[in-house]
Specification:
Blueprint: E1 13-24, H1 25-35, E2 43-50, E3 53-60, H2 63-66, H3 69-74, E4 77-86, E5 101-105, E6 108-115, H4 121-130, H5 140-152, H6 158-165, E7 174-178, E8 183-187, E9 196-200, E10 205-208, H7 211-216, E11 219-224, E12 230-234, E13 237-241, E14 255-256, H8 258-263, E15 269-270, E16 273-274, H9 275-289, E17 296-299, H10 305-315, E18 323-325, H11 338-348, E19 349-351, H12 353-356, E20 360-365, H13 372-383, E21 388-393, H14 421-428, E22 432-435, H15 438-441, E23 453-454, H16 456-459, H17 472-494
Parallel strand pairs: 14-23, 17-20, 20-21, 21-22
Antiparallel strand pairs: 1-4, 1-10, 2-3, 2-4, 5-6, 6-7, 7-8, 8-12, 9-10, 9-11, 12-13, 15-16, 18-19
Helix pairs in contact: 4-5, 5-6, 9-10, 11-13
Length: 495
């Protein structure tokens, strides 16, 4: 059953490669998606263009599990490809929702992969259904694909169709779109989600959600794609369309600050700012705002480690490796079910007793959402012999839902909406608790080329209109379909 806490929100990774020569593009996508695996662990897929013929493969699972050698060998030959890793926080755990989406239409085939969430997807979906469109997924990526193909009928080129669709779709989106002859990358005008491109020594152009994926395939970062920009890669070269770029100096962009706090890999640069340096800076600011007498600073792997280094550096308290992480367990924040999330914590982290035993410990983590994971981790440190555990969080408290792609879907799930900071400290078992302030959180991205950041999950100041309609009706339909399948299965079993 799909409950309110299981609505489809995505924080994903996209990847694209364009070459003027026929190469093993599937291998390039494979390594690129491997580097982006932290952005999505529920499913993955690729689409390969070979002489204008687009074929795709996708499935539920990790990159290494889905793309077996025989699969990659079948897709080796081509000159363009796109790929996607899916983070299905909630919603239908269905292969159909895995991307890329491949569309056949009168102007030719198109493949599309998307990172983000639209705020007007329900309205657009209803409009399209009334016009006769039939949807096969619950993802707003399919809405985007229909908007592009609808525009394509009247537009002279695929890039102009993307350009026209961007006047209609609202919210967070970083796209890679592949036609028989072109690879297109596009980023929403607010710049909610990261997107960059680079080039390899042999001339391949690479588009990726993060620069770490460029590094993985030997590409040199050229630059981040500007908010609102469309980049077209073709045999004619690289062409930029800036119709949606807002050049008003009063306009503030809205890059999700959580990219620096948690989502992006520390070896990536997002809009010109090192993620590692941003997290170290967060730790330094935490140390100044929430000092404490302690013997050692430890970080919760992985995104708490860099902030712990910064806290130790600014406070003068020694830094230590407090946890060993089972590297074969996925990120708990993106487990789609709460019971699964808690089970993973039990086997994911193991404290090093020799480091924390008998000591006053400062434990740095990136966030507290529901509180259950934090309580378990604090308990682990105490069971390892720590005298005191002082928790410091490199983000402000979550107080509002996110409509742009982060798994913060209801105030009912947010511990900070129900309890004061001292109460949260007591609930998770900490001797003290300190969060990064709203004033300080944007400072971690100093040096970024972005002119502003989305802090809505911390202050309810949404940079766009929020959805006027929810996805509830869509998921109600999924519940009915799931029930019908169950009833039919039970009837067959009785027979």
């Amino acid at each position: 059953m799909i409950t309110d806490s299981q609505k489809l929100h995505e924080e994903c990774g996209v990847f694209g490669v364009f070459s003027t020569k026929r190469i093993n593009v599937a291998a390039t996508v494979y390594y690129g998606l491997f580097a982006l695996q932290h952005r999505g662990q529920e499913g993955c897929g690729l689409a390969v263009n070979s002489n204008g013929v687009i074929r795709s493969y996708k499935d539920i699972g990790l990159v290494n599990d889905v793309f077996k050698p025989n699969v990659l060998s079948d897709f080796a030959d081509g000159n363009m490809a796109i790929g996607h890793v899916r983070y299905g926080t909630t919603g239908s755990n269905d292969r159909n929702n895995v991307q890329p989406i491949v569309v056949n239409h009168i102007k030719g085939r198109m493949a599309l992969a998307h990172n983000g969430n639209l705020v007007n997807s329900v309205e657009l979906r209803e409009e399209l259904e009334l016009e006769g469109s039939i949807f096969h997924t619950t993802s707003d990526t399919e809405v985007i694909s229909y908007m592009i193909t609808k525009a394509r009928i009247k537009c002279p080129s695929i890039e102009e169709a993307v350009n026209q669709a961007m006047y209609k779709i609202k919210g967070a989106y970083s796209l890679v779109v592949m036609s028989p002859a072109k690879l297109i990358a596009a980023r929403d005008p607010q710049g909610f989600r990261p997107l960059c491109y680079g080039q390899t020594e042999d001339g391949r152009y690479i588009v990726a959600s993060e620069s770490c994926a460029l590094d993985a395939v030997g590409a040199k970062l050229i630059r981040d794609i500007r908010p609102g920009e469309i980049i077209v890669f073709s045999e004619d070269g690289v062409h930029s369309i800036t119709d949606h770029c807002i050049n008003d100096p009063e306009h503030k962009e809205s890059l999700c600050i959580f990219e620096y706090i948690y989502f992006a890999r520390p070896d990536s640069k997002v809009d010109g700012r090192s993620v590692h340096q941003a997290r170290v800076r967060a730790g330094e600011l935490l140390a100044k705002a929430h000092p404490v007498e302690a013997d050692i600073v430890i970080g919760v792997p992985d995104s708490g480690l860099d902030a712990a280094v910064g806290y130790a550096r600014a406070s003068g308290i020694p830094y230590g490796i407090g946890f060993i992480k089972n590297k074969y367990i996925g990120r708990t924040f993106i487990a789609p079910d709460q019971n699964v999330r808690e089970d993973k914590v039990k086997i994911k982290l193991n404290p090093i007793a020799e480091v924390v035993s008998g000591k006053r410990v400062v434990m740095i983590d990136d966030s507290i959402v529901r509180g259950t994971t934090s309580e378990r981790i604090v308990r682990l440190v105490r069971e390892a012999g720590a005298k005191e555990v002082h928790v410091r969080i490199s983000a402000p408290p979550f107080v509002s839902p996110c409509y742009y792609g982060v798994d913060i879907d209801s105030k009912d799930k947010l511990i900070a909406c129900k309890h004061t900071i001292p109460e949260i400290a007591e609930i998770i078992g900490a001797d003290s608790l300190g969060y990064l302030s709203l004033e300080d959180v944007a400072k971690i991205a100093e040096g970024s080329t972005c002119s502003g950041f989305c802090l809505a999950c911390f202050n309810e100041n949404y940079p766009t209109d929020v959805p006027s309609k929810s996805n509830k009706n869509i998921f109600d339909m999924e519940i009915v379909k799931d029930k019908d399948k169950k009833d039919k299965s039970e009837e067959e079993g009785d027979a």
